[in-house]
Write a structure and sequence with these properties.
Structural class: alpha+beta
Strand order of the largest sheet: 2-1-3-4
InterPro entries: DCC1-like (IPR007263), DCC_oxidoreductase (IPR052927)
Organism: Flavobacterium azizsancarii
Oligomer: single chain
Protein name: DCC1-like thiol-disulfide oxidoreductase family protein
Shape: globular
Number of strands: 4
Distance between the termini: 14 Å
Number of helices: 4
Radius of gyration: 14 Å
Length: 138
Amino acid sequence: MQDNLLKNKKIILFDGVCNLCNGAVQFIIKNDKKDIFRFVALQSELGIEISNYIGVDQKKIDSIILYNPGVAYYYKSSAVLEIAKNLGGFYNLMFVFKIFPEKFRNYVYDYIAKNRYKWYGKKESCMIPTPELKAKFL
């Protein structure tokens, strides 16, 4: 995989069948005024390829991943906070949660992740983006 996959874009890998995750993707798209993010389902071929490339074991990850090609990647609560920071404006305030230890933030994240299908449901397959949103997905 090449680090220049998408110049100046950050890739969000998400659970494509999770209703909570799909809602979060829709929220990010709506608030991504600077057109920073592109999206890939973790279950897709490209999602698996990117996960393998950055060294994240697919069997151990049920998390959102933010990958900044050639720079770094973040997962779980750190990915959420980095995404909020990149959205700018009011969402920058979420970065205040960085004061909590990552272990504590991830404990909360894991609790939500463990219950996401029970609370929000699950799709039978990954969502198909509308024609106008197709450019946002890899």
